[in-house]
C-alpha cells in the first residue's frame, strides 16, 4: 500500500512538472491562456457568485480549487496524438482554455442583462484584461447604479372570472408597490398565476397569456407596472376571442395494460365501475378496484386540477406492480360548458422475480463467503403488495482463537417482508390515506450463528410505516419492533473468558445473554434538495435527520403490576428472559456547499445519546455507539476507537469494549471532480464515543464535561470515488492526527506519523454523509 501511494504521488508530480513545461506548446501565436476570471460588484444586493453563472468561458478546472492538474496531464501528452499514451493522457486531462475576446464580450452582455433584470436598469459592466506573458486574467466589474422601484401596480384582466379569482387571492401575490422592479419576480408571478389557474379548471391556460407593461416616469427611478391577461385565443365556437374555459372532469377511465388511442375501441373490454371511475380490462383485472380508487386523485364532477394530476402520477408511481402510467385528456363541449374525459393507462410490471447473490466477507481479517437467494412477488393480493423472502448462508474461517478445535463460523438466515402501498391502520378515513403517500411494512427475520465459542439465535418481527409529508421531508414510524436474542450454547472456554472479563468489563457478559428488546421509534428526515435527490446534485443543500426510540416501558409497567419487585432482585423477566429498557436519541446534520460545478465543501455533525434505566444496567450491544470506520473518524478502523481515552487490549472480542452510550462525529470534506467518472476528496474527521457509567477501574471512557473535549480524536486523509451514476464506490485512506488513547509524543501522530501504526484504509459504497 505504501509503495502504491508513493507511485501514485510520483506520477502526479511528474505530470505537473512535464505539463507545466509544455503548456505553452498548446497556446497559438498571438493567443493567451485564460488563467483566471473574476466578477466583482459595488452592490451587496448583487452577488458576484450568482453572476459568475453567466460566464461563458471559464478557466481550466482545478483539483481542490488549487492546482490545474487536469490541464497539466493533458499538456504532458505532447503534440503527437498517434501514440496511445498521449491519447490516454488527453482523455484524462483538460485541454488549455484559449481566451476568446468575442465570448468574453458575450459574457459581459449577459451579466449586464442579468443585473438589469434585477431592477438596475442604468447598470454598467466593464471588462478589464490583464496579460502576464502568455496568460490572461479577466475582470468583470459591475456598477449597479440606483434601482428602479414599482410606484404603481395596475391589472388589465379582461376575463372577469379570472379577475375575480386573482383579486380574492391578491394577498399571496409576489408583486407589491414599493418593491424593486425585478424581471425574475415578474416571471415567478407569471408561473404562480398559471399554476393557480391550472388548479382551478383552466386546462388550456398557459403563461403566454400573461404579459407585463412597464412605463418609466421621466426624471425618476419609478415604474408604473401593468399586468395584462389576454382573452382566450381558442374559444369553443372558434370565432372570436372569448373568456377562458373552465373544464370539469366528466369521466375517469383506467385502461389496464392498454395504451390510450384516439381511435381505440374500448367497447370490447370488460368494465368495472367503482366510486365513480371506470376500470377497463381484458381478461384479467390485475389490481383490485379499491386499490386503484385509493391512488386516484382525478374525481368526476370536480374542476380540472393540475395538482391532482401530478398527485395521481406520484401515487401510482409507488405501486411496484406498475411499469409506468400515462394520463391523457379528451375535451368535450356541451352548450357553454367544457368537460374532460380522463384516460389513465396502467402498464403492468413483472410480478414475480427470483435473484441469486454471492458475496465475499472480511470481518476483522477473517475471510469468508456468503450466498443468498431472494424471491419477490410484487402483487401478492392484487393490491401491489410486495412480498419478499430471502434465504442466506455464510461461512467464515476464524483465526486467532486459542483452545478451540473447530475454527469454522457458519451463519444461516431467513427473512421475509410484506409491503403495503398505503397506511394499513384501522379507523383511518380514505381521505386521510389519500392525503398521505404512505407505505406499511411487516417483516420477520431469523438468524442462526454457529461459532466455535458459542451459538446465537436472533429472531425479530417489525411493524412500521413510512410516508412523505412534503416533497422534502420523510417520516418513519416503527410501531412495534420485537427482537429476541437466544444463546443455546456457550463453550466452557468462552464462559471462563466471560468470568475473567467480569472484573474488567461486565458489559461483555450482558452482550452474550438471552434478551428481549421491544422498541418503538420515530425518524424524521429533511433534505432541502428533495428526498429523491442524489447527493451528487449540483447545487448547495442541507439535510437533517432526527431519530428517537424507546424500549421496555410497556413491559416494565406490566411487570410492576404483576410483581412489585424482580424475582432475582435485579431485573424483571418475561418468560424467564430479561428485557431491555432504554431511551435513545440521535441527531444528524449535513451541509453541502457547491463552490462551482466541480468542487464542493461538506460539513457534517452527528451526535447521539442512549440511556439505559429501570430494567437495564447497560444497553444491548446492537444499540451501543461505536467510532471509527468508513463513515466516522477514518483514521481508525471500525469499532477500534474509544470510549474516551480507553486504549484497548488484544483479543478477538475487544471490539465489545470500544462502544459507548454517547457519540460525537464532526467531519469536513472537500470534494472535487478529477476526470471521467473519478472524484477525489480531502477530509478532516473528529469524534469519539463515551460511556455514562464507569466501565473500567480508572474511569477511562466515562463522559465528563471537564475533559471530554480532550478526548476527541482527530484524523485526516484523502479519498477516491468512482461515480458510476447508479453506484458510488469509495476508497478512503485516513491518518491519525490526534490520538487521545496515547500519551507523550504518541498523542500527536500528526507531528511524527507512522504509516503502519496510524493509517487506516476503508472501502465503502456511497458517500459517508
Explain briefly what this protein structure is:
With 769 residues, the chain is of the alpha+beta class.
Write the layout of secondary structure elements.
Blueprint: H1 2-22, E1 33-41, H2 48-51, H3 69-75, H4 84-92, H5 101-117, E2 124-132, E3 135-143, E4 149-157, H6 160-168, H7 183-198, E5 210-216, E6 222-229, E7 247-256, E8 270-274, E9 277-281, H8 289-294, H9 306-316, E10 322-334, E11 337-348, E12 352-363, E13 366-377, E14 386-397, E15 408-420, H10 430-435, E16 437-450, E17 454-470, E18 473-490, H11 492-501, H12 507-510, E19 515-527, E20 541-551, H13 553-562, E21 582-594, E22 599-612, E23 662-675, E24 678-690, E25 713-723, E26 728-738, H14 755-758, E27 759-765
Parallel strand pairs: 1-3, 4-6, 7-9, 7-11
Antiparallel strand pairs: 2-3, 5-6, 8-9, 10-11, 12-13, 13-14, 14-15, 15-16, 16-17, 17-18, 18-19, 19-20, 20-21, 21-22, 22-23, 23-24, 24-25, 25-26, 26-27
Assign a percent range to the helix content.
10-25%
What is the CATH C-level name of one domain? Alpha Beta
Per DSSP, the total helix count is 14
State the assembly state of the protein chains.
single chain
| Low-confidence sequence ranges | 1-8, 531-536
CATH superfamily label of one domain? membrane protein fhac
- CATH architecture of one domain, please? Roll
Mean pLDDT metric: 86
Query: How far apart are the first and last residues' alpha carbons, in Å?
Result: 26 Å
Percentage beta strand: 35-45%
Strand order of the largest sheet: 12-13-14-15-16-17-18-19-20-21-22-23-24-25-26-27
Amino acid at each position: 500500500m505504501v509503495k502504491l501511494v508513493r507511485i501514485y504521488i510520483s506520477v502526479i508530480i511528474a505530470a505537473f512538472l512535464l505539463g507545466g513545461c509544455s503548456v505553452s506548446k498548446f497556446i497559438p501565436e498571438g493567443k493567451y491562456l485564460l488563467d483566471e476570471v473574476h466578477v466583482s460588484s459595488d452592490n451587496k444586493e448583487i452577488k458576484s457568485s450568482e453572476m459568475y453563472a453567466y460566464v461563458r468561458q471559464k478557466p481550466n478546472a482545478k483539483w481542490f480549487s488549487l492546482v490545474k492538474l487536469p490541464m497539466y496531464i493533458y499538456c504532458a501528452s505532447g503534440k503527437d496524438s498517434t501514440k496511445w499514451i498521449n491519447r490516454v493522457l488527453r482523455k484524462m486531462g483538460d485541454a488549455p482554455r484559449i481566451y476568446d475576446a468575442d465570448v468574453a464580450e458575450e459574457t459581459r452582455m449577459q451579466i449586464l442583462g442579468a443585473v438589469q433584470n434585477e431592477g438596475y436598469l442604468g447598470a454598467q459592466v466593464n471588462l478589464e484584461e490583464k496579460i502576464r506573458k502568455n496568460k490572461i486574467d479577466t475582470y468583470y466589474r459591475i456598477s449597479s447604479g440606483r434601482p428602479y422601484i414599482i410606484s404603481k401596480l395596475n391589472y388589465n384582466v379582461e376575463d372577469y372570472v379570472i379577475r375575480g379569482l386573482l383579486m380574492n387571492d391578491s394577498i399571496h401575490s409576489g408583486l407589491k408597490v414599493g418593491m424593486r422592479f425585478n424581471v425574475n419576480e415578474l416571471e415567478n408571478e407569471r408561473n404562480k398565476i398559471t399554476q393557480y389557474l391550472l388548479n382551478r379548471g383552466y386546462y388550456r391556460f398557459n403563461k403566454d397569456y400573461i404579459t407585463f407593461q412597464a412605463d418609466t416616469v421621466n426624471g425618476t427611478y419609478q415604474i408604473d407596472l401593468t399586468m395584462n391577461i389576454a382573452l382566450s385565443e381558442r374559444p369553443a365556437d372558434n370565432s372570436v376571442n372569448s373568456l377562458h374555459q373552465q373544464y370539469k372532469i366528466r369521466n375517469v377511465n383506467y385502461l389496464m395494460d392498454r395504451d390510450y388511442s384516439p381511435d381505440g375501441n374500448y367497447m370490447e373490454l370488460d368494465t368495472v365501475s367503482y366510486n365513480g371511475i371506470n376500470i377497463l380490462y381484458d381478461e384479467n383485472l390485475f389490481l383490485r378496484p379499491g386499490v386503484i380508487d385509493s391512488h386516484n386523485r382525478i374525481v368526476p364532477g370536480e374542476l380540472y386540477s393540475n395538482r391532482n394530476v401530478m398527485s395521481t402520477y406520484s401515487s401510482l408511481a409507488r405501486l411496484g406492480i406498475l411499469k409506468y402510467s400515462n394520463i391523457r385528456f379528451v375535451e368535450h363541449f356541451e352548450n357553454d360548458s367544457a368537460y374532460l374525459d380522463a384516460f389513465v393507462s396502467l402498464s403492468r410490471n413483472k410480478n414475480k422475480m427470483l435473484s441469486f447473490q454471492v458475496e465475499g466477507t472480511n470481518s476483522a481479517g477473517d475471510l469468508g463467503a456468503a450466498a443468498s437467494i431472494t424471491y419477490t412477488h410484487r402483487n401478492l393480493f392484487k393490491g401491489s403488495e410486495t412480498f419478499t423472502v430471502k434465504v442466506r448462508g455464510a461461512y467464515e474461517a476464524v483465526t486467532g482463537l486459542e483452545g478451540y478445535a473447530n475454527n469454522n463460523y457458519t451463519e444461516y438466515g431467513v427473512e421475509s417482508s410484506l409491503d403495503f402501498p398505503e397506511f394499513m391502520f384501522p379507523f383511518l378515513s380514505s381521505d386521510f390515506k389519500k392525503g398521505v403517500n404512505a407505505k406499511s411494512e411487516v417483516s420477520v427475520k431469523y438468524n442462526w450463528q454457529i461459532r466455535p465459542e458459542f451459538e446465537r439465535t436472533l429472531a425479530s418481527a417489525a411493524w412500521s410505516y413510512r410516508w412523505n409529508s412534503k416533497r422534502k421531508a420523510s417520516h418513519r414510524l416503527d410501531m412495534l419492533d420485537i427482537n429476541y436474542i437466544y444463546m443455546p450454547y456457550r463453550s466452557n472456554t468462552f464462559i471462563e473468558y466471560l468470568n475473567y472479563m467480569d472484573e474488567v468489563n461486565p458489559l461483555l457478559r450482558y452482550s452474550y445473554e438471552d434478551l428481549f428488546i421491544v422498541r418503538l421509534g420515530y425518524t424524521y428526515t429533511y433534505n432541502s434538495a428533495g428526498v429523491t435527490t442524489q447527493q451528487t446534485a449540483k447545487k448547495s443543500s442541507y439535510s437533517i435527520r432526527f431519530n428517537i426510540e424507546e424500549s421496555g416501558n410497556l413491559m416494565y409497567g406490566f411487570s410492576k403490576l404483576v410483581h412489585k419487585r424482580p424475582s432475582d432482585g435485579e431485573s424483571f423477566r418475561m418468560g424467564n428472559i430479561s428485557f431491555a429498557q432504554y431511551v435513545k436519541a440521535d441527531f444528524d446534520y449535513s451541509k453541502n456547499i457547491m463552490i462551482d460545478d466541480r468542487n464542493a465543501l461538506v460539513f457534517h455533525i452527528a451526535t447521539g445519546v442512549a440511556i439505559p434505566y429501570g430494567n437495564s444496567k447497560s444497553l444491548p450491544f446492537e444499540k451501543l455507539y461505536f467510532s471509527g470506520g468508513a463513515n466516522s473518524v477514518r483514521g481508525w478502523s471500525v469499532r477500534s476507537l474509544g470510549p474516551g481515552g480507553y486504549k484497548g487490549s488484544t483479543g478477538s472480542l475487544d471490539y465489545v469494549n470500544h462502544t459507548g452510550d454517547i457519540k460525537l462525529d464532526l467531519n469536513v470534506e472537500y470534494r472535487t471532480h478529477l476526470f471521467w467518472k473519478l472524484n477525489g476528496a480531502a477530509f478532516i474527521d473528529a469524534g469519539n464515543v463515551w460511556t455514562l457509567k464507569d466501565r473500567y477501574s480508572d474511569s477511562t471512557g466515562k463522559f465528563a464535561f471537564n475533559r471530554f473535549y480532550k478526548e476527541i480524536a482527530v484524523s485526516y486523509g484523502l479519498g477516491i470515488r468512482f461515480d458510476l451514476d447508479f453506484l458510488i464506490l469509495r476508497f478512503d485512506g485516513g491518518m491519525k492526527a490526534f490520538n487521545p488513547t496515547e500519551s507523550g509524543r504518541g498523542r500527536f501522530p500528526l507531528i511524527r506519523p507512522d504509516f503502519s501504526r496510524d493509517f487506516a484504509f476503508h472501502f465503502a459504497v456511497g458517500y459517508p454523509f
